[in-house]
Prior knowledge:
Layout: H1 4-14, E1 20-21, H2 31-34, E2 46-53, E3 56-61, E4 66-70
Amino acid sequence: MPELPEVETIKNQLQAFFPLQIQSEKMTPEFSSIQKSPVFTLKGKTILSSARKGKMLYFRLDTGETLFCHL
C-alpha cells in the first residue's frame, strides 16, 4: 500500500496527461462486490484534473461528476 508522498507523486505525474478523454471502459468481476453507487458510463467523458485527500485521488470529469480512486 502506498504512503502519502507516493500518492502525491502519482497525482502530480498524472497531471501531464490531462485533459484525458476516456475512449473505452471495462468492468471486472470484482467490481460488483465493491460497487457502492449506480453504474454510470465513463466512455466519452473527459478527465479534467485530479486532486488528493489522504490516499484518495479525485478525478474531476467534464460532466461535473467526480471519480474516486483509493490507492
